Structures are given as C-alpha cells and as structure tokens.
Amino acid sequence: MRYLVLAILLIVAGLLDCGAQSKPTEACVFAFDGFATTPGQKVQMAEVTQRAAVQLEACGSPKGCAQAPVAWGTPVQVYRQQGEWTCGYVSGRDGAGPAWIRSSALRVVSYDEHPPLSAWVGTWTGGEDRVLIRTGGVPGKLQLVGSAEWRGKYTAHFGDTKGSASPVGNHLHFVEGGTDSCTIDMTLLNRYILANDNQACGGLNARFQGIWKRTGP
C-alpha cells in the first residue's frame, strides 16, 4: 500500500512540475511604442472568457512569474504566443500593462475593417479617459469631445480635447488644431477602441491612450 501511495505522489509531483515548466520563460514585452496604429494595420483584440483566469507578470526573472487574478470580460490586445500562453496588453480594473494570459481563457473579438460612421458613435471610457464621439453637421465627419486625468500621490494632471475628423476604414486620425496640437490615433475594433496620442493633449501623464470600451450611447 505504501508503494502505491508513493507512486501516486510521484505522478502528481511530475504533473505539477510539467505544469510549472509550461509557464512562459521570458517577459511579455511589446515591440512597439504604445498604441500607435495606422490605416490597414492588422490588430487582434480578445476578451477573457473564464472567471477564474489569471495573468502572469515578470516572467523570466529568477523568482519566476508573478500571478494575479483577471476578471471575466477583460480586454486584451494580443501580441504573440508562447506555448499555451498569449502575450498581450491587459486592461483591467486595477491597472493596465503587458502580461501573459492562458490562450484557452481568451476569445478573439471580430471587427469590421470598414465600419459605418455610426459604429463610432457613443461614449468610450478607458482608465481615466472619457471620450464622446458623435456624428457632426459635415457629412463623413465625426465630432470628438474628450477628457483625460492622471492622479499621483500629491498632485493631479488633466487633459481635454475637442474637434472633428473623418475616419479611414476603422482608423481615425484626430488633430485638434495645428501640427503641434493634440493628436490622437484611434482604431475601432467592434466595441473597443485602441488609442494613442502625441503627449500634447494635457498635463504630465494625462494621456488619451490605451483600450477604450463603449460604455454608453
């Protein structure tokens, strides 16, 4: 009986060791700066579909990956895969950044590369960004009104923008005024928008960037 128990323990230990070895061996590092997007650029967005899913951070360090829970429905911009894991930019309730998510816990979000103008319309939020997009009086143009915020320990910085632009496919290049004014690039991916600005839209760290989700009409 003792030999049978020992054999079972050895098998379980072996399975656990294989599970540990299946984790990513390097950090999830993006090979691009922020969320700069251009018309026609292929982008893959996914959502977490398991309530017990976890994300792995700091992989490749001597201590191994740090593990944190990730909520169902969390959007992930997919970058690459390693084994059973997907490296992507995870935008969660407690912050955002690159991390590994088990591929089986993700569902790819389909989107139209040539959406109608009405697909942009709505209120979009991400982090401290809040942006209202609506159709304007000029055919083919969208009106945008947005606010951004960044809060440190002892200070807060704010940003805002307002203007109009015409989308090309599912990409919108917004310029508030002249060449040095607030500029935001946006890519529409169904119920999400990937956004990146030129750091000229407000105070320090008040940025229009990241993954925005439609939260209202």
Summarize the structure.
Helices cover 9% and strands 45% of the residues. It is built from 1 helix and 15 strands; from the N terminus they run αβββββββββββββββ. The radius of gyration is 21 Å and the shape is globular.
Helix content range of the residues, please? under 10%
Arithmetic mean of pLDDT: 84
Strand order of the largest sheet: 11-10-9-8-15-14-13-12
Q: Give a short account of the largest sheet.
A: 8 strands, antiparallel
Your description of this structure?
This protein starts with a helix and ends with a strand. By secondary structure, it is mainly beta. The strands form two sheets. An eight-stranded antiparallel β-sheet has the order 11-10-9-8-15-14-13-12, with no helix packed on it. Strand 5 (85-92) and strand 6 form a beta hairpin. It has one helix at residues 2-21; strands spanning 44-48, 54-57, 66-69, 75-82, 85-92, 95-102, 106-108, 122-126, 129-135, 142-151, 156-165, 171-175, 183-189, 192-197, 210-216.
Which features does this protein show?
single chain, 217 residues, mainly beta, SH3 type barrels, 2 domains, eight-stranded antiparallel beta sheet, seven-stranded antiparallel beta sheet, globular, disordered N terminus
